[in-house]
């Protein structure tokens, strides 16, 4: 069995864009509308020398449910099967209440979690990163999934966490 790396985070932070960048596919649906990705997507990516299964937790859908409970359930399911979790936040939006809720969930698991601040393009790295310090997860790995920046460093960190 290949190790599983799960991408979690609230809607619209760029999880599917990151999934596509790391798997070099367009399989995951990228949308401007929060909560639009409907299915969990699986792909293969390389983490250091090792092939891994990458999971994009877009949405397991239940549109009637509030985004918060939906997001929380996805996180739990993905985290359960993951060796490493990429917790994605948006450097553009800064820290949100939904981010904090996900962190609460992640703390209850014993998985390795990497904090990934996406959408760093056009922003000062240290300014963007400072907002997330209060999560107590250390310096975020800063990336731009859209511009394929920081992905090598991210995958090196993931390899160390495997
Ligand atoms: P998801 O809901 O977390 O899967 O987010 P998506 O991957 O669907 O992306 C949501 C929006 O953010 C889309 O409009 C993307 O084009 C945009 N986006 C994703 N990554 C980046 C990035 O690195 N920089 C910027 N500026 N926008 C991004
Ligand atoms: Mg998505």
UniProtKB/TrEMBL annotation:
Residues 3-162 form the EngA-type G domain. It comes from the Bacteria. GTP 1 binds at residues 9-16, 56-60, 118-121. Associates with the 50S ribosomal subunit. GTPase that plays an essential role in the late steps of ribosome biogenesis. Belongs to the TRAFAC class TrmE-Era-EngA-EngB-Septin-like GTPase superfamily. EngA (Der) GTPase family. This is GTPase Der. The chain holds residues 1 to 162 of 468 of the full protein.
